[in-house]
Amino acid sequence: MEYIAALTPSVVMAVAFTAVIVTIVKNQGGANKAKEDAVVDALAAQAEARRSSHADGEGRA
Prior knowledge:
This protein is an all-alpha fold. The protein has helices spanning about 1-25, 30-60. It has one domain (about 1-55).
Protein backbone atom coordinates (compact mmCIF):
# COMPACT_ATOMS: atom_id res chain seq x y z
CA MET A 1 0.00 0.00 0.00
CA GLU A 2 3.01 2.30 0.20
CA TYR A 3 2.93 2.70 -3.57
CA ILE A 4 -0.48 4.39 -3.31
CA ALA A 5 0.91 6.92 -0.84
CA ALA A 6 3.89 7.46 -3.12
CA LEU A 7 1.83 7.97 -6.29
CA THR A 8 -0.97 10.11 -4.83
CA PRO A 9 0.92 13.46 -4.86
CA SER A 10 2.00 12.94 -8.47
CA VAL A 11 -1.50 12.06 -9.58
CA VAL A 12 -2.99 15.04 -7.75
CA MET A 13 -0.46 17.39 -9.35
CA ALA A 14 -1.11 15.93 -12.81
CA VAL A 15 -4.86 16.40 -12.43
CA ALA A 16 -4.42 19.96 -11.14
CA PHE A 17 -2.04 20.81 -13.98
CA THR A 18 -4.47 19.40 -16.54
CA ALA A 19 -7.30 21.45 -15.02
CA VAL A 20 -5.19 24.63 -15.22
CA ILE A 21 -4.32 23.99 -18.87
CA VAL A 22 -7.95 23.27 -19.77
CA THR A 23 -9.06 26.49 -18.04
CA ILE A 24 -6.45 28.53 -19.88
CA VAL A 25 -7.40 27.06 -23.24
CA LYS A 26 -11.13 27.62 -22.63
CA ASN A 27 -10.54 31.29 -21.76
CA GLN A 28 -8.66 32.02 -24.96
CA GLY A 29 -10.65 33.68 -27.72
CA GLY A 30 -14.38 34.20 -27.88
CA ALA A 31 -16.19 37.09 -26.21
CA ASN A 32 -13.44 37.50 -23.61
CA LYS A 33 -10.87 38.08 -26.35
CA ALA A 34 -12.88 40.94 -27.82
CA LYS A 35 -13.24 42.57 -24.38
CA GLU A 36 -9.54 42.20 -23.61
CA ASP A 37 -8.56 43.58 -27.01
CA ALA A 38 -10.85 46.58 -26.52
CA VAL A 39 -9.33 47.32 -23.11
CA VAL A 40 -5.79 47.08 -24.47
CA ASP A 41 -6.65 49.30 -27.44
CA ALA A 42 -8.24 51.91 -25.15
CA LEU A 43 -5.22 51.94 -22.85
CA ALA A 44 -2.85 52.26 -25.79
CA ALA A 45 -4.85 55.16 -27.22
CA GLN A 46 -4.93 56.87 -23.83
CA ALA A 47 -1.17 56.48 -23.41
CA GLU A 48 -0.57 57.82 -26.91
CA ALA A 49 -2.81 60.84 -26.21
CA ARG A 50 -0.92 61.58 -22.99
CA ARG A 51 2.41 61.23 -24.73
CA SER A 52 1.43 63.55 -27.59
CA SER A 53 -0.10 66.17 -25.25
CA HIS A 54 3.00 66.03 -23.07
CA ALA A 55 5.25 66.46 -26.11
CA ASP A 56 3.19 69.43 -27.34
CA GLY A 57 3.43 71.24 -24.00
CA GLU A 58 7.18 70.80 -23.43
CA GLY A 59 8.53 73.52 -25.66
CA ARG A 60 5.94 76.23 -24.87
CA ALA A 61 7.05 77.22 -21.36
